[in-house]
Amino acid sequence: MIIGILKEPAGENRVSMLPEQINPLVKNGISIMVETDAGINAFANNEAYVHAGAQIVSRKQILESANILLGYWQISDQDFTVTQPGTILIGVYQPLFQYKQMQKLAEFGFSVFSLDMIPRTTRAQSMDVLSSQANIAGYKAVISAAHLLPRYFPMFMTAAGSIPPAKVLILGAGVAGLQAIATAKRLGAVVEVSDTRAAVKEEVMSLGAKFIEVEGAADAASAGGYAIEQTDEFKQKQRERLAISVAKADVIIATAQLQGKPAPLLIDEALLKLMKPGAVVVDLAASTGGNVFGVQNNQVIKLHGVTLVGNSQLASDMPSDASKVYGKNVFNFLQLILTKEGAIHLNFEDDIVKGCCMTHNKEVVNERVQSLLAS
Ligand code: NAD
């Protein structure tokens, strides 16, 4: 049994498993092949992998011989023809957006397990890559905003005058938003939070932030914990209430997402113009359109006196810890599909294995991807 660890595409700093995480697999008799310099941007060099029991080889050699390929992003179209049919691919494939690519991967005969599709259940928590990476992104978003803000975060009373605390508005209190609240509070900011799921109100308040109440949000009970699209009437009410907080905010951290759909636009141009000069927006939903008008994915721009940071992969800017927790998620998932002897055993009765399997036996097997392909 060979597991391959691939180098990620240019611009990505994470690696799918760190040297310290491969040792238990090696002890289980599994051969680990690592692409040259795969971990270099996450401060894990080739020597460390060799020391842990791996072989450093070329990409071609891994693609040709591995039974399981680990990555964060999906392999490229050029890789398809070199990779053996039947190979298991594990990564974050964003299949609800990349559904046409799933069809291609199925045709090549790969079994794709996309860890971003793991059900958000208690048992699956240790494999939940969306949570492990969003937690880091939420933290880093606040740190980045503090770095760019021309003001202090905490309150200061000095002989040279008083400085009021920064006001931070957080849009969306999922995993990233909750970590952003905690980080902004630790830095001394006053924090307000908007979310359409009433269930998060208590969590927001327990972190010391104010929850912005807007009545009439659509009931998301059937959406597996995710939010759903809101009515125009609710959006209008939310916009009116947000205008008050936006005008006061020094920083907006935007994290609101709708699973598999474009992000909701919560701050339009008129609202953005209400922000103070020098204010900072960090939009983690940038890759799916963003919550804030004018935000451009992977760019930092200035618009109406506000610095807009569009970055949905902020975890990649903290590659040591991001790789550590991602690698742990991958390792825990491997325990579900490997026997004690280190052989592959795919149990599709297991809701986690079934939930994140996108393609198998030359077919797209996930129902949501199937219906997107049929539409
Ligand atoms: P997400 O990234 O999909 O969305 C971020 C937040 O944006 C959510 O809280 C959502 O309600 C909010 N949002 C969406 N539209 C909005 C709007 N128009 N206005 C304001 N806010 C809006 O969320 P996530 O962090 O991936 O979490 C999704 C769900 O999964 C949550 O219910 C979370 O508690 C749950 N979860 C469960 C587990 C587990 O049990 N294993 C682990 C992590 C998360």
Summary, kept brief:
By secondary structure, this protein is of the alpha/beta class. The protein has 13 helices and 17 strands.
Task: Give keywords.
seven-stranded mixed beta sheet; eight-stranded mixed beta sheet; 13 helices; 2 domains; alpha/beta; Rossmann fold; binds nicotinamide-adenine-dinucleotide
Could you say which structural class the secondary elements and strand pairing correspond to? alpha/beta
According to DSSP, the number of beta strands is 17
Based on CA atoms alone, the radius of gyration comes out at 22 Å
Helix segment count? Answer: 13
Average pLDDT rating? 96
For this structure, what is the CATH homologous superfamily of the largest domain? NAD(P)-binding Rossmann-like Domain
Give me the CATH fold name of the largest domain. Answer: Rossmann fold
Overall 3D form = globular
Helix content: 25-40%
Whole-number tally of structural domains:
2
CATH architecture of the largest domain: 3-Layer(aba) Sandwich
Taking pLDDT < 50 over at least 5 consecutive residues as the criterion, the unreliable ranges are none
Strand content range: 15-25%
**Sheet bearing the most strands, described?**
8 strands, mixed
Spell out which ligands are present: nicotinamide-adenine-dinucleotide
SSE topology:
Elements: E1 2-5, H1 19-27, E2 31-35, H2 46-51, E3 55-57, H3 59-65, E4 68-70, H4 77-80, E5 88-91, H5 99-107, E6 111-114, H6 129-148, E7 156-158, E8 161-163, E9 167-171, H7 175-186, E10 190-194, H8 201-206, E11 210-211, H9 232-248, E12 251-254, H10 269-272, E13 280-283, E14 299-303, E15 306-310, H11 319-337, H12 351-356, E16 357-360, E17 363-364, H13 367-374
Parallel strand pairs: 1-2, 1-4, 2-3, 4-5, 5-6, 9-10, 9-12, 10-11, 12-13, 13-15
Antiparallel strand pairs: 6-16, 7-8, 14-15, 16-17
Helix pairs in contact: 5-13, 6-7, 6-11
